[in-house]
Amino acid sequence: MLSPLHRLFSLLLVLGLGACDGQSPDFSRPEPGEALSAGSATVRRSDRDAFAQPSANLTPAQRLEFAVGNSFFRKPWVTAPASTTARDGLGPLFNTNACQNCHLRDGRGHPPEGRADSAVSLLVRLSLPETPATAPLAERLGVVPEPLYGTQLQSMAVPGAVPEARVRLSYDSHRLRFSDGFEVALRRPRLQLDRLGYGPLHPDTRFSLRIAPPMIGLGLLEAIPEAAILANADPDDADGDGISGRPNRVRDLARQSTALGRFGWKAGQPNLNQQNADAFFNDLGLSSGLLPGSSCTPIQADCLASADGGVPEVSDHLLARVLFHTRHLGVPARRAVDDPQVLAGKALFHRAGCAQCHTPAFVTAANTAEPELANQTIRPYSDLLLHDMGDGLADNRAEFQANGREWRTPPLWGIGLTQKVAGHIRLLHDGRARSLLEALLWHAGEAQAARDRVLTFDAGQRAALLAFLNSL
User: Given phi > 0 = left and psi -120 to 50 = alpha, else beta, which region is 357?
Assistant: First the structure.
């Protein structure tokens, strides 16, 4: 198996970016096409609506289909029965009534910041530790559900049903110092639950806080060949570099088989259609052909007795329209790729070792679900693999083959537009980081060595690294 450095050299050579005879990659100038993060699908917008645009290579007819899916993504669902039969059946328990409420302008969610702020775009996942008796359930669902509340807390309910809980956060803080004395305050969230609607939680319950991730480029991530992702895996750290990324193997409900996980903070979903169906089911309380029935647990009698919006509530046709929309949300072009400070920051990014997990580029498959996604050189800056990120970020909650310290490498494309699109900067899986620098300094585990190298950077180097990240 190739080392990450050799894999990087090989990729640069394939793209025409490297030098022969063992020379180091040239970071003094932009790579050909580097600004086009999504190939011909790249969007030329960098304003507050930059994440809400259709892929640039769609035809007018496809843009109309995109708009139809977008309408179901944005508009609220209502309780049943209702005259709006195409959008009724919300709940009985739910976290929000529209996808867009979590992914505002198709961007990143955020944790509640004050006592009056609701946790709309932050979810609380639940599970129990696996035992021999519950192993078959964990294999099928990926987790062992909490017996009273299931796998996700839902803080809202339709009239006649009782919400499961109210979610609040507090924070513990500490400071981390760079070699030159510069300090950054880091904060760790503490989950606070009250108004439990169905009794006390099991004492062994594991909790995982998850903010809604950005929606851009998901179809392109789905189009990366599985072999290309697995080529970067080194589960046993055979090359001894301290990086042991590994795939998550999850349940594909449509095929009734095991598949490579790609989506979600722990790569717990194999494809976009299942990711979308799961969000409808758990976040909005809506059934589909892929996930029928209700998320109500057996003891939630008022939930089980509530009216539904038909069987299924999300038709196959509607789910397909949403799938087309989510596959074709475009990725904005990079900015200032030839700026000397950005190029210096790019060199520092590689020098620190960040690219060992945040793989810069892939080429999508030739035979994709949508032709516009095929044969594109994309630059997501993610390997889509699981990595041990240390105790500080651990949620101690397993999900299929991901353990409680592992997270999927999140794509970095578009991260520099977070503030402009979402109106905030809340990074990492639980939104604890209020800046790129904070997010970087939480890296530990396999990323400890890279984090420690960054801690040696002086003010000019920090500024350059951040300039590069903000250009993505």
Answer: alpha
